[in-house]
From TrEMBL:
Residues 269-528 form the IQCH-like ATP-grasp domain. It comes from Rotaria magnacalcarata. Pfam families: ATP-grasp_IQCH (PF24923), IQ (PF00612). It comes from the Eukaryota. This is IQCH-like ATP-grasp domain-containing protein. Coiled coil: none annotated.
């Protein structure tokens, strides 16, 4: 401080104080200005972002509106021209896309494999007026193919060789070659074969299949971002009558339809999604006046869930198990159930009180008692089908209430059979029943691994009546295309009468339709939608000629029943270690093949190329019992041959075999009881 002690010290101190003050004041103004400028930048950038997003949203809305207007316009044209289109040469562009919601797609493994279950669409080439353009969800690596697979490629598939194959007594043949032999009724190939069928299908592989790893995008979205594939399809369908068919509808279907300038054989994606949910299908069933399980739908809060379930338990005390289904789920993964009769402490007392006096006051008291205990019972004793996603009631309840869901009664019976009926609702209002079958369950009683085709568990007239009512309601809601209706049938313990409930509706082309098409194509058989029977025409020798008689033998055409076990979900990890030639050699060694003359045997469908751990299998025979026995026998034989000692838990073959053996055991027991009752009478 000595510098301030001389005669100019006060002046120097004043200068320093002023400079420090000016510096402080300027810095304060700068900071304030900087803060205001930062705020202005934030406001400006936020406003620009908001404006751009609003503009994009507006453009997207206009685009969606334009696509919807185009969709409705094309639907109207398809409806007016359907009679002509369905009877003349036409091209079907089939996109086996599973347009599930994003949250479901992220939980699914092998989504392209599940989409490729629809490869049986190629068997629609049975109709000479149909050409097929199939968009493949799987990209095969040519370097990884063995010679056997490449030999199939030259016969059946022209662009990708990872699809449906079968074997016969002649060795390996494609579906198309085998069908030609079946039509000839001979095991020797004709000297001149027509390539007409091979020229009527094309398989397109979108270039964007591997460009979005980890996103699990559906095939429609991948095709949308594949301009080369879209241009190729557009070039192929130029000046031809064409329409688009998809698996489960997605909003990107509208973009593809508009780009290709073709109509969609199906309904609007939003309508498809709405009425494919559990609550949406219940609305259709209720309007159709068809029998449904006791239950409640459109549940979005916990209070209503508990109150509705308590009321249902009081009203239906004979129901032992209650099922919870999330509205938006796939393959039974959103299902949980609780055995209320077993775990509810007050259940026995409630039953006794209601049996003594069923007046309103007793029911109210029982309702209050059940409601008090219900939350704790559900928390401790609910069983979840998808254990990898749901480990507790609170986790399941969170998803259930956010997505919405239903409560449904499980049939009060010891024997329950699920039935699937597949229909096609045409744009002009007519509909046809494509196939029907009894579901087979192995890993879960709510997940179907196969189908017994055609169904034999319920009266066909009754099923057709219910289907007709449901189709009428679907038409009122502008639902067209392919639909699957699920039923359950059971014998009521009290009345001993067979009941039939409608439980689910799925909109879209399914794997059941695909496999049934394969069976019809191979056997040249026909499905009778009135009787729910499948018959094939066969040559039968009218009169056997003796050695001394001359002339050609005379044949008559007879119709014979055929039954099939269809499955696309067989899995074995060791299949990827086997060459196809070795696998088919194993099958031939054990007599697993297709008899061309008798039109029965076993067909395999291969859905993937690089890993080929999954396989489809169709077994055909003249009786249902024989078909089930053969399927289980062949599957068990293959399992024993290809399973090493250290890979016992790497397959679902044995689960399928055990399920079939249980069915055969129940059938045998039922037949024994019927015979015993008949002899007693």
């Amino acid at each position: 401080g000595r510098r301030f002690r001389d005669k100019h010290g006060k002046q120097r101190a004043a200068i320093i104080i002023q400079s420090y003050w000016r510096s402080y004041h300027a810095r304060k103004i700068y900071k304030n200005l900087k803060k205001r400028r930062w705020a202005a930048n934030v406001i400006a950038s936020t406003w620009l972002k908001h404006s751009k997003l609003a503009k994009i949203r507006k453009q997207l809305k206009l685009m969606r509106r334009r696509q919807l207007d185009f969709f409705h316009k094309k639907q109207s044209e398809l409806r007016d021209q359907w009679l002509y289109i369905s009877s003349h040469r036409r091209t079907i562009v089939h996109i086996p896309s599973l347009g599930l919601s994003e949250c479901i797609r992220k939980t699914l493994d092998n989504l392209p494999l599940k989409e490729n279950y629809q490869i049986g669409r190629l068997c629609e080439l049975e109709d000479p007026n149909i050409d097929v353009i199939y968009v493949s969800p799987i990209l095969a690596s040519t370097q990884k193919l063995d010679k056997t697979f490449l030999s199939y490629r030259s016969i059946f598939l022209q662009q990708i060789s990872h699809h449906a194959l079968c074997i016969s007594k002649l060795g390996e043949k494609s579906y198309i070659s085998l069908r030609a032999l079946v039509e000839q009724g001979s095991e020797q190939p004709a000297s001149t074969t027509s390539n007409n069928t091979n020229e009527r299908f094309v398989i397109i592989v979108p270039e964007a299949l591997n460009r979005f790893p980890g996103q699990n995008m559906c095939l429609a979205s991948l095709l949308k971002y594949s301009p080369k594939a879209l241009k190729q399809i557009k070039k192929l369908i130029k000046d031809r009558s064409t329409y688009l068919v998809t698996g489960i509808s997605h909003m990107d279907d509208l973009y593809i339809s508009e780009y290709l300038d073709i109509s969609i054989y199906g309904c609007e994606p939003e309508s498809s999604y709405l009425y494919s949910t559990k609550s949406g299908s219940k609305r259709i069933f209720k309007s159709s006046n068809v029998p449904m399980p006791y239950g409640e739908y459109d549940i979005y809060n916990q209070k209503r869930l508990l109150e509705s379930l308590a009321q249902l338990i009081v009203e239906h005390l004979d129901v032992q198990r209650w099922i919870f289904k999330i509205d938006d789920n796939y393959d039974g993964l959103g299902i949980a159930y609780c055995d209320i009769a077993t775990h509810l402490p007050c259940y026995k007392n409630v039953v006794e009180e209601v049996e003594k006096s069923a007046n309103q006051s007793v029911q109210k008291q029982s309702y209050a008692q059940i409601l008090c205990e219900l939350s704790d019972v559900l928390d401790k004793h609910t069983i979840y089908i998808n254990k990898s996603q749901f480990n507790s009631w609170q986790e399941y309840l969170k998803v259930f209430l956010s997505e919405g869901g239903i409560i449904e009664a499980y049939p009060p019976s010891n024997s329950v059979t699920s039935i699937t009926v597949c229909l096609s609702i045409e744009p002009d209002g007519h509909y046809s029943l494509v196939c029907s079958g009894d579901q087979l369950h192995a890993e879960s009683q709510f997940s179907c691994w196969g189908l017994s085709f055609p169904q034999t568990s319920a009266d066909s007239n009754r099923l057709n009546t219910y289907c007709s009512s449901i189709v009428e309601q679907c038409q009122q809601r502008n639902i067209y295309g392919y639909i699957d209706i699920d039923f359950i049938t059971f014998i009521d313990i009290k009345t001993k009468q067979q009941n039939l409930w409608v439980i689910d509706l799925s909109i879209g082309y399914s794997e059941h339709i695909s496999l049934s098409r394969v069976m019809q194509y191979i056997t040249t058989g026909k499905f009778n939608p009135q009787m729910h029977s499948f018959t094939v025409k066969m040559k039968q020798l009218k009169q056997r000629l003796r050695n001394w008689q001359n002339g050609a033998p005379e044949y008559t055409i007879v119709e014979k029943n055929r039954y099939g076990i269809l499955s696309s979900k067989l899995y074995h990890r060791n299949l990827s270690n086997l060459h196809y030639s070795i696998f088919f050699q194993i099958c031939r060694t054990h007599g697993v093949g297709f008899d061309i003359r008798e039109k029965q045997g076993t067909i395999f469908t291969l859905y993937e190329c690089d890993h080929h751990e999954h396989i489809g299998m169709i077994t055909i025979s003249d009786t249902l019992k024989t078909t089930l026995s053969n399927f289980a026998c062949y599957l068990n034989t293959i399992y024993q041959e290809i399973t090493p000692a250290d890979m016992q838990d790497s397959s679902n073959f044995i689960l399928a075999v055990n399920d079939i053996e249980n069915i055969l055991g129940i059938t045998q027991e039922t037949n024994s009881n019927v015979s015993l009752n008949s002899s007693t009478s």
